[in-house]
What we know:
This protein is α/β, with parallel strands linked by helices. Helix content is 38%, strand content 22%. The chain has helices spanning 49-69, 105-113, 122-133, 193-196, 198-210, 227-235, 239-263, 282-292, 295-300, 312-328, and strands spanning 2-3, 9-19, 23-31, 35-42, 76-81, 83-85, 91-94, 117-121, 142-147, 151-157, 160-162, 267-271, 302-305. Strands 1-11-10-9-12-13 form a six-stranded mixed sheet, with helices on both faces. The protein has a five-stranded mixed sheet with strand order 4-3-2-5-8. A two-stranded antiparallel sheet has the order 6-7. Bound molecules: zinc ion (ZN). Zinc ion binds next to loops.
Amino acid sequence: MIITPSDPDGTQLAIGIDVGGTNLRLALVDGCGSIIHSVRTRTEGHGVFSAFRALLTENITALRHYARERDMLATTIGIGVPGLVGRDGSIHVAVNLPALNGVNLRDELQAITGLPTIVANDVNACAYGEKVYGAGRDLASFLMVTLGTGVGGGLVLDGGLWTGFDGVAGEFGHVTVEPEGVPCPCGNRGCLEQYASGTAITASSRRIITEGVETSLSQIPPDGLTVESVASAARRGDQAALAIFAEAGRYLGIAAASVANLLNLEAVILGGGVAACSDLFAETVRNEVLTRAFPLPGKRMRIVKAALGDNGGLIGIATLSLHHQDRRKP
Ligand SMILES: [Zn+2]
């Protein structure tokens, strides 16, 4: 399935929902990508689907009420979920929220709200947001990569979001970079996510401390180690911390080089929390791509930072719902 951008219309209004492992964010987003109003609530304690559905319903109702009081009307809903989302709105694998596994979230929400609803992978939604309003605006084809707890991916090809035959395309984090490597919860071994996510970076830091490698990180208690603390050690010149980022960058580059050869993209757009430290690894990614890919696609593929930050997912999924609705009009 390919969804392509349509002309902005500021009078349209959608409810965008971003489902995270700990937070649920909802926003009213207009047809120009502006957030009119947003709320954030905890998903903890909503491990059963009926409880999660009640939480969604309550917050959607509150947002629609907020809009109505201001003479506005939300006409669509978009919900971004981390994991594998089928093109019919079924959740095949929900990362961190197993209560959603097997649920057709589109049908559930449409039945409750009466509004046309689209469900998408959260990073696909981010990619679409960056295409329409962010760093991908002037690009026809790129890969969005989010580096956070995991590694997510979303593909924009020839101006449209590419979600694949079943809807589950773009799982860049589960590209194999070490055939006999670290086991991954997806069932494979040596997935990129096990080497380049924020989780992997902090795990590597803990490992080198245990191994007795000389590093200023050993002064930080193991449970206090974060990507930010490893990054600030690296920026102070800590060689071990620099090596951890270089290693993550190398693996990202190995995977990105295959993507360059396969798809000849214009760019990789980096988002997510770890992208804030991309100054520490972007060069390594670039060099690895140039070393491994054919020169033409390797040089073509730039590494750029996402422009929409934390709001990319919300803006992207709301916009996706508006454009998807446009597409269905006669
Ligand atoms: Zn995996």
